[in-house]
Amino acid sequence: xxxxxxxxxxxxxxxxxxxxxxxxxxxxxxxxxxxxxxxxxxxxxxxxxxxxxxxxxxxxxxxxxxxxxxxxxxxxxxxxxxxxxxxxxxxxxxxxxxxxxxxxxxxxxxxxxxxxxxxxxxxxxxxxxxxxxxxxxxxxxxxxxxxxxxxxxxxxxxxxxxxxxxxxxxxxxxxxxxxxxxxxxxxxxxxxxxxxxxxxxxxxxxxxxxxxxxxxxxxxxxxxxxxxxxxxxxxxxxxxxxxxxxxxxxxxxxxxxxxxxxxxxxxxxxxxxxxxxxx
Length: 279
Description:
The chain is of the alpha+beta class.
């Protein structure tokens, strides 16, 4: 089965462990299953709000190289000892990624869209998996959709990621289900729970620009909004990368948990001009 492997953390995976601090156990809101929020946080929170919510200090942060910062997103990395134990195992490093898809006066406001948490190489990810299940419920498929030209080439369903192509259509719903070493939790809330009314109308117009000839456009868009997960969690239990090596030249083994609501945050910012946390 072809896997969508999202690796957020490729650097500084060793030597930053500790357990001095445990993250807030109380989620915001009180039903984390609905939108799969990271403990104590909400999607689209500002960097300063995240820093305050987690009690982080400047010395807890790792400077991100300038060549890794873009106009639309940037990342703040947090040392493992600042986060301590999370879901039963010590954190090595965490990366909080913020996005700015606003237009007009709100450009320059960044909102939280994804979080990557890396664990020690000897971490027991079955413990992490059990703790995730206790907090977020049983594992469930992560559902998503693509813009797909007639030629079969696929690209992300972010509306400004492709030029108009003759014969394009929105493809059927895809899903990723748990299978060692990948495990998934799809949110109870769907994209259509948030992308409604004027936001949906604006989103439709933006998508239509890259799907001008799609004969199944409205039907497929409605289906995508009704079925696609608003957020998801992806746990990697020892994913081996042949491209990324450790200090000894051996394939890097990833033990990570990814929290992701990028599509929802981008749409709410671009189509809805939404500046508040999403809950």
